[in-house]
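The records we work with from here on pair a chain with its fold. Taken together, the tokens spell out the fold as the letters spell out the chain. The record below shows the convention in full.
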Amino acid sequence: MAKTKELSKDTRNKIVDLHQAGKTGSAIGKQLGVKKSTVGAIIRKWKTYKTTDNLPRSGAPRKISPRGLKMITRTVSKNPRTTRGDLVNDLQRAGTKVTKATISNTLRRQGLKSCSARRVPLLKPVHVRARLKFAREHLDDPEEDWENVIWSDETKIELFGKNSTCRVWRRKNAELHAKNTIPTVKHGGGNIMLWCCFSAKGPGRLIRVKERMNGAMYREILSKNLLPSARALKMKRGWVFQHDNDPKHTAWATKEWLRKKHFKVLEWPSQSPDLNPIENLWRELKIRVAQRQPQNITALEEICMEEWAKLPATGKVESWLILMERRKVDILCVQETRWKGSKAHSIGAGFKLFYYGVDSKRNGVGVVLKEEFVRNVLEVKRVSDRVMSLKLEIEGVMLNVVSGYAPQVGCELEEKERFWSELDEVMESIPTGERVVIGADFNGHVGEGNTGDEEVMGKFGVKERNLERQMVVDFAKWMAMAVVNTYF
């Protein structure tokens, strides 16, 4: 018998209305052209459920019986690598014919989902015991102890390797269009080996290892880069060095070299790369490098160095955030950031950093802004790695925030004059009537007292005025500004 068309909701409601009016089922059927049995079914449904809407239906009966469900669940629990085809064959031998899709849907309802197996280090019982011992020994270590550790590692980055995944928007059958593909070659098209170190305060040095590394080369890398990195990161006294149990690291000569240099070494369990937080840093670097798409080994090395220099100095950023939150600061000018690039990105805790730098080893300026004011930014002017400015409109007021970093006392006069020229250029570009705040490190002292300079400074300067600070005072007079931190 063919399936009949479902009655509309209006027709079903009319049936109920006519029934309540006292008409019989036959009369209602004749009036609306509906079978008497259908009228009776709708009236019974209304009397039972007080509605004529469609109720939830049980659907088709399950193809897999409860007994079959227990069987396949038990099978995959014992052996998670069992394939859907194996389960289909098991059920077919038991007299139930199903598809692979039915297997997937059934197991998904049981909370079981087919996933790619995670790759983890091969652990023997001795490795498990060592890792457990390490965890128990350091379980209660305070956070300050881990902040005083320098982590190190080596990694290989391939030119066309699988350094990161990439998703594209494409139409059906367009998967092989050049713009929707990632080129690959055998063995990654060449690679470079890198060594680096980092701590909670930020990344240390990144070095390319150009030859096959042996113990002597490893000790040379440490002698040239480990201590300078510790100094640059401003590690506390008694900092600890971490490296894994590679034979080059555990060789007697290397251990003796570390002992003579009085370096404390963190005892590390074998087969434990997943415990080293530097792996997260390597992943971030590889993703950034892959996005730049280097075309040769030389470009690959240059991009690695550039992207490494852009990685934020975590400790420095955290100190900014703590300061801004404690002192309720919404805008902070920062100097000597030493980040290469011209970007803006969120740094956490509801703040965004606008920065500019051309050298990862010196200079660099930036402005940290509370994210609620980011939409108020009208213009960002990056003049040099010593001067940049932001223009904001806050409650109808135009505010210009200038971040500056003056050359130090020992720098060439030409470099100092260039800084003041750039600062003059920024100030002259600001229309009259707009407010200006300069947050800068002028690398000098205005001196105590304010005799003769009362219009631009207070009495609370420090030390004796030097040439650099005389330039600051003269600049303030010329621009009709004030040296604010001398008033309190």
Q: What stands out?
A: The longest helix spans residues 215-232. The mean pLDDT is 84.
